[in-house]
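hey can u check if this looks right to u? its 315 residues, i copy pasted from the old doc so theres a chance i mangled smth
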Amino acid sequence: MTSLVVGSIAIDSVQTPFGRADDALGGTAVYFSTAASILTDVQLVGVVGADFPDHGTAMLRDRGVDLAGLQRRDGKTFRWSGEYDYDMNVAHTLDTQLNVFETFHPLIPEHYRDADFVFLGNIDPVLQLEVLKQVRRPRLTALDTMNFWIDGHRDSLTRVIERVDALLINEGEIRQFTGQHNVLAAARKIQQLGPRIVVVKRGEYGSILFADDDVFLAPAFPTYEVRDTTGAGDSFAGGFIGYLDRAGSTALNDLRAAVVHGTVMASFTVEDFSVNGLLRATTGSLAERHRSLAGMTRIDLPIAATPSGLVREGV
């Protein structure tokens, strides 16, 4: 089984109340690949400039990520600079330099085109459509997006959403796209466009999975140290898709387990800057946090118990 990711590769500079990182590895494709490679084989498509550090490609290669789809161009790599205050759910962009990413067009290598799971990272919807035209018969295609594309490229974004199996989107964005304040109503509206799976990411409050008529809520994994939330959503996607690929299934129970794996994967990301937290994660530590989260959320009610207390039988 293999997972294909198409997305940005960046050099980030980030300031939070808990520290600073300059010229750090970032971008959707990097976070997704670092996370998913713990669970499955990953094929990456993206673009970097001549300034992209050798240790970045070495790290991905050491994790078994296939870099045949990595384009190298003269010029500079996409760069992003941002800061967070104590509300770590909101990043404040200070500077964005698209550089070689501005003219990027995804070219899918021949041996990538049979990938089982395809994740379309947060890039121009026109480019996402280009990818869908190049892959053959994936078992699942998933899409991420952002408010910029919702505002300025709604028609092309809608065309992509109509063609994928799953949409991963945050709470504010799904409300913005659908015009529905109620998240359940918003998810239903997305499903009517085509995707049977909608995952609403809610930052520190967890996520909600909508799969056909099923609804599943997962809290965020509680961590004592949150230093940088950059890439948490992309790491979630890597855990989510990586688990489904490893399981070889998109059945309901596996979708639920995939959401929990995504949640746990993101918990490693936020504990440090860049991908440093993810690099400390292993299949064993993922399983341990998975079990811990299950224990934290398990509720065993006595027979005939209700929130208001025990009731008489037959009532």
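The first strand starts at residue 2 and ends at 6.
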